[in-house]
């Protein structure tokens, strides 16, 4: 076994880039030793400087590109790569879509599963799409700033145009920043767990244009609260809800447990597939509204629902998949762990006059076992889990209920492949092809829909 790396820190090397990792880093090899390099693409020949050497790999930085990839496009702004806001901004959009398709294929191949993956469904304007921003507020050179962290660091790079966010949200952040400056609010200090204002969260309904502002504070007390609220309301007429979320802990978790409505309503409303949705501060809501409609339409079509069908929607959030399905199916059961989201889901059923739905707050793995033990016989089960995928026990409960189909909406191809293997071992085969839908242009995130049929 090799113990000495063939490269040395701070030395420069001329290398060919042979691959792109799932994190969007170019890969060069020297004597089989991999070096990962930001802003480098396959087929390129570059001069790079080694910046970090580990036992089995190293990191490098591009010094000069001798030969460019035909898939390379101009950087919009270097800071979007440095912060990780848009780690694929140097890759042509068509190539990003292919990168994501290929990623799914690769993750299945690693488990010796051969699958067909359809071309990724992309978007026409693959930027300014996000309906939600979570922006840290920190002191930079003595001034309150909003921006994003340099990757793997605690340095905030001030940013006003976030490129992938709804520009109305960017404008709102700048206005709120200026109001916070005016009232001399103290930005959060991670080192001492001091200061007041940690983050600003803004959400804006793509169709409704209703805006929610969440001020995440360390302290219960928000100095100049009335003035700040009045100024935000005046400066941003779209704001329908201002919430203070209190997060006193020294933690990387964004939000704390306590919410206080400072002005307006507790929720904002938006529309998806013609249905209305109430969304509260702590609820999950897909961030790319244009692509979400495509994703859900596809999931619903692939579910092939009929009027007699019983459906389970696991990880249902505020009911954005459950409710369109309830319009077609006989009855839909949803489970979700965030209690506020379940409250939203129940209200959303009422707002849309759908009474053939049941929402339960709890862990999907527990509730699925319970439904199975209670003798529920769903025809279709939809799962839309977070990145860690499904628990093996949940897959067992699903299989025991013997649905005709399982529709799996995944945001992580690695766990999708792992779970697909378990499904296939238990009699559920993939109805090819897997269909990726690009929910996160310019980033490395891969979202897809897979259908499993009972054999
Ligand atoms: N289908 C919804 C939400 C998908 S995101 C939509 O598209 O909007 C995943 C959801 O799973 C989140 O709402 C999250 O709160 C929830 N969740 C995470 N872990 C869970 C678990 N163990 N059991 C149930 N829900 C969970």
Automatic annotation (TrEMBL):
Q: Where does the TRAM domain lie?
A: 6-64
> Can you tell me which residues form the catalytic site?
411, 411 (nucleophile)
Q: Which residues bind S-adenosyl-L-methionine?
A: 286, 315, 336, 384
Q: Which UniProt keywords apply?
A: Methyltransferase, S-adenosyl-L-methionine, Transferase
| UniProt xrefs under Pfam families | TRAM, tRNA_U5-meth_tr
Can the keyword Iron be found in this entry's annotation?
A: no
Instruction: Name its GO BP terms in alphabetical order.
Output: methylation
User: Which molecular function GO terms apply here?
Assistant: methyltransferase activity
Stretches that traverse the bilayer: none
Is the rRNA-binding keyword given for this protein?
no
- Organism domain of life: Bacteria
PANTHER family this protein is in? RNA M5U METHYLTRANSFERASE, TRNA (URACIL(54)-C(5))-METHYLTRANSFERASE
Family statement drawn from the similarity comment of this UniProt entry: Belongs to the class I-like SAM-binding methyltransferase superfamily. RNA M5U methyltransferase family.
Name listed for the protein in its UniProt record: RNA methyltransferase
Q: Which organism is it from?
A: Lentilactobacillus fungorum
């Amino acid at each position: 076994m090799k113990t000495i790396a063939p490269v040395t820190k701070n030395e420069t090397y001329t290398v060919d880039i042979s691959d792109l990792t799932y994190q969007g880093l170019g890969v060069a090899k020297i004597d089989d030793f991999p070096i990962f390099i930001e802003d480098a693409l396959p087929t390129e020949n570059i001069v790079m400087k080694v910046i970090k050497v580990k036992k089995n790999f190293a990191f490098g930085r591009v010094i000069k590109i001798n030969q460019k990839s035909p898939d390379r496009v101009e950087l919009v702004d270097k800071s979007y790569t440095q912060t990780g806001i848009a780690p694929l901004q140097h890759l042509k959009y068509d190539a990003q879509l292919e990168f994501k398709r290929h990623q799914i294929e690769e993750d299945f191949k690693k488990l010796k599963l051969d699958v067909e993956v359809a071309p990724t469904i992309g978007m026409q304007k693959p930027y300014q799409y996000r309906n939600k921003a979570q922006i840290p507020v920190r002191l930079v050179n003595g001034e309150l700033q909003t921006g994003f962290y340099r990757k793997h660091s605690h340095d905030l790079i001030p940013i006003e145009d976030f490129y992938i966010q709804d520009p109305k949200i960017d404008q709102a952040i700048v206005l709120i920043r200026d109001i916070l400056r005016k009232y001399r609010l103290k930005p959060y200090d991670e080192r001492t767990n001091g200061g007041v204002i940690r983050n600003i969260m803004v959400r804006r309904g793509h169709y409704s244009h209703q805006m929610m502002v969440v001020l995440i504070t360390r302290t219960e007390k928000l100095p100049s609260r009335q003035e700040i609220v009045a100024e935000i309301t005046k400066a941003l007429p779209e704001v329908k809800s201002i919430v203070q979320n209190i997060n006193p802990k020294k933690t990387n978790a964004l939000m704390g447990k306590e919410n206080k409505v400072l002005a307006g309503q507790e929720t904002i409303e938006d529309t998806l597939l013609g249905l209305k949705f109430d969304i509260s501060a702590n609820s999950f809501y897909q961030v790319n509204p244009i692509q979400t409609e495509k994703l859900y339409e596809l999931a619903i079509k692939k579910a092939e629902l009929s009027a007699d069908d019983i459906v389970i929607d696991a990880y249902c959030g505020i009911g954005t998949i459950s409710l369109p399905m309830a319009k077609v199916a006989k009855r839909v059961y949803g489970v979700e762990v965030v209690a506020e989201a379940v409250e939203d889901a129940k209200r959303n059923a009422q707002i849309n006059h759908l009474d053939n739905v049941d929402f339960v707050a709890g862990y999907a793995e527990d509730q699925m076992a319970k439904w199975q033990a209670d003798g529920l016989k769903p025809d279709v089960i939809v799962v839309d889990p977070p990145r860690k995928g499904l628990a093996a026990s949940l897959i067992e409960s699903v299989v025991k209920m013997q649905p005709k189909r399982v529709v799996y909406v995944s945001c992580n191809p690695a766990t999708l492949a792992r779970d697909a293997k378990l499904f296939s071992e238990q009699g559920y085969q993939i109805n090819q092809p897997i269909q990726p839908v690009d929910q996160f242009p310019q980033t490395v995130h891969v979202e897809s829909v897979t259908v499993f049929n009972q054999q």
